[in-house]
Specification:
- It is built from 3 helices and 49 strands.
- It is mostly beta strands.
- The N and C termini lie far apart (124 Å).
- Residues 1-17 and 552-559 have low confidence and may be disordered.
- The chain has a 6-stranded antiparallel β-sheet. Strands 11, 12, 14, 15 and 16 form a 5-stranded antiparallel β-sheet that branches.
Length: 647
């Protein structure tokens, strides 16, 4: 008989949902059997496909746990079956499945089988009807899917259904499951979250996690427990086994329950595969590379570890070799080697029942000092100055100076570095040259090298000049200024009691004054010599004072025919203005001289009677002090004034 389920009533169609993945989807009845032993597009065929899909067997080949002959091979076609017979018609399912561990209740749950016998609802044929529950409404009715409900062997979906009973895998529902790594020879565990999917307490429930092959053949039990659940209670249960002996390969974990003398049945996870795939692997440990070679300096390398079936540990045999582990990578750190070559080992062990060990051999080269310093000597002028020393070292270095006037920066360097060291000498104010040493020393060990750089600095220049070189005082008391150009420290004295000086010594460039008392004589001119001394150099100024009542300033012009009155600006940057007085039309020479008297330039100038103003360009001169000398002819006495060029 082809019509195993039939319903003559108006139905509400929800839509095809996942019906199109049913391998025999379509319409029209068929005398051909499906792979589960039911006629295609009958209600029992469609629900069998739903059950197998929930077992993870949604295809049409291979072995399937939900089949027509799963309850037995007897061929009685009546609706009053006995143990050992096939499911065949929908009206036989409640009795036969209950005998085989399935749970029959009046409460719908998603994934359950809605079942009616022929006499339990108008329109149901004598052979009964089954549907698959897809959801449950708040009023307790169910939304379902089925084939051949209207006798056309076609798909239909229904809402708000109330079946005579509902058949489930068990009273329990699988929520989630987590597995440890399944490694042959090691301990394994399965943690499952289960809910008592029924509104009453469920006591002394036998629950187990079992291992099946990928084709659903029973292999063995991981662990069995007996537990009690309150109504609707959820529990997290861990099943464990100390040693897994099964061969490597692909398997499934079934969470199963059993009560009374019925078979063990799979706990259902609605709308998902209820079996849990797992692969058993062999324990293995791979370490690469198995040898490391370090240079003598501190550095790091890595080792890769692939440990199948458990974590691993890594230890070092030497204090100079340290390890840090992150996942499958070991970072190996060695300190700098200060002596001969050395060897150590790294031992990698698998942390499991089947402990495996791999050894990594580590060698480090001996330290060979290498230090290059260039140049080997430095020469500085007497001025403040900086120069560079290049240092290349394969070990840490310390850099120092043995004199306070010579500093170095930086004062240290790391291993395997190439750096520039700045050596700075402060100005030498002494009139003698001086020397120092820069020492570059490796601080690695007693095998280290030391290199020195000889440093010399020139003596300070010995310069002493004064201006003017002659002073003439009137007969009255007076003061005159003296300019000194000096590169060091000098002393100054005079040999007359009527003349006093504002200082007796000084350092560097500056000015001072000479002061005379009034000359009491109306007939005698008195003289003196002012003497400057610095490091063997002597400069003198001839000082004279006219008799009382005589003014040489008033007669200077008539005696020499001209007078150098002034020059400006001072300091000067571009052009020097000169003021001269002349008694007659005449030519004079204007000569610029260095501070030590060497001529720089000479200019012939025609003077008119009276005041003359002349400009001389100085843009070609470098910064410093100079003298302007005015004279009529070579070797004649010159009138001089000192000025400074500052740009």
């Amino acid at each position: 008989m082809k019509k195993f389920c039939f319903l003559l009533m108006f139905v509400f169609t929800l839509g095809s949902l996942d019906a199109q993945t049913y391998p025999y989807a379509g319409s029209g009845c068929s005398d051909a059997a499906d792979v589960w032993g039911f006629y295609k597009r009958q209600c029992v065929s469609y629900v069998a496909w739903c059950m197998n899909r929930d077992h993870g067997n949604a295809g049409t080949t291979g072995s399937f746990p939900f089949r027509n002959d799963m309850t037995g091979t007897g061929t009685d076609n009546t609706c009053s079956p006995s143990s050992g017979q096939r499911l065949s018609h929908a009206c036989r399912w409640n009795d036969l499945l209950a005998l085989n561990g399935y749970y029959v209740t009046h409460f719908p749950t998603p994934g359950a089988i809605a079942q009616w016998n022929g006499s339990e609802k108008t329109g149901i044929g004598a052979l009964g009807h089954v549907e698959y529950v897809i959801s449950v409404n708040s009023d307790g009715t169910a939304n379902t899917q089925s084939y051949n409900a209207a006798g056309t062997c076609a798909y239909k979906a229904y809402s708000n259904r109330t079946a005579a009973r509902y058949i489930r895998f068990s009273r329990m529902k699988l929520n989630d499951a987590k597995l440890s790594a399944f490694v042959k020879g090691q301990a394994v565990s399965v943690t499952a979250s289960l809910t008592n999917n029924f509104g009453q307490a469920y006591n002394d429930v036998r629950i187990r996690a079992a291992l099946y092959t990928a084709s659903n053949a029973y292999v063995g039990v991981i662990e069995e427990k007996t537990l009690s659940f309150a109504a609707n209670e959820e529990k997290s249960i861990t099943f464990s086994k100390s040693t897994l002996t099964s061969s490597a390969g692909d398997y499934k974990i079934w969470i199963e329950t059993q009560w009374g003398g019925s078979p063990w049945v799979l706990v259902h996870k609605p709308f998902e595969t209820s079996t849990i795939p797992v692969s058993i692997v062999e324990s293995s440990l791979t370490v690469t590379p198995t040898a490391l070679a370090f240079d003598y300096f501190a550095s790091s390398k890595t080792v890769s570890v692939v440990a199948t079936g458990g974590d691993y540990t890594a230890t070092s045999s030497a204090t100079w070799l340290t390890l840090s582990k992150t996942g499958g990578t070991i970072t190996v750190n060695c300190t700098a080697n200060a002596g001969a070559s050395r060897t150590a080992t790294i031992t990698v062990k698998q942390s499991s029942n089947l402990t495996k060990t791999v050894t990594v051999t580590v060698t480090q080269a001996a330290f060979v000092p290498s230090l290059t310093v260039t140049p080997s000597s430095l020469s500085f002028t007497s001025a403040s100055e900086s120069k560079t020393v290049g240092v290349e070292s394969n070990a840490p270095t310390a850099i120092s100076s043995n004199v306070s006037w010579l500093t170095v920066s930086p004062t240290s360097g790391g291993a395997n570095t190439s750096m520039a060291v700045t050596a700075r000498a402060v100005a030498n104010t002494l009139f003698t040259s001086r020397t120092g040493l820069i020492t570059v020393k490796q601080s690695q060990s007693n095998l280290s090298k030391t290199v020195t750089v000889t440093v010399t600095q020139a003596a300070a220049p010995n310069i002493l000049d004064v201006s003017p070189t002659a002073l003439t005082f009137n007969g009255v008391a007076g003061t005159k200024s003296i300019s000194i150009t000096a590169s060091g420290t000098y002393t100054v004295t005079d040999d007359a009691s009527w003349l006093s000086l504002s200082r007796s010594s000084g350092t560097g460039n500056g000015t001072m004054t000479a002061t005379c008392t009034a000359n009491p004589s109306t007939t005698a001119v008195r003289t003196a010599v002012i003497t400057f001394k610095q490091n063997g150099l002597t400069k003198t100024i001839a000082a004279s004072q006219n008799r009382k009542g005589y003014s040489p300033d008033a007669q200077a012009q008539s005696e020499t025919d001209f007078a150098l009155k002034s020059l400006y600006p001072n300091p000067v940057s571009d052009a020097l203005s000169i003021v001269l007085n002349s008694n007659e039309l005449q030519d004079v020479m204007l000569e610029i001289r260095t501070i030590d008297g060497k001529p720089v330039s000479v200019h012939k100038q025609a003077l008119t009677v009276g005041e003359n103003r002349v400009q001389i360009p100085v843009t070609a001169l470098t910064n410093g002090f100079y003298f302007l000398a005015v004279f009529k002819e070579a070797n004649a006495t010159a009138q001089t004034l000192k000025f400074e060029v500052l740009k």
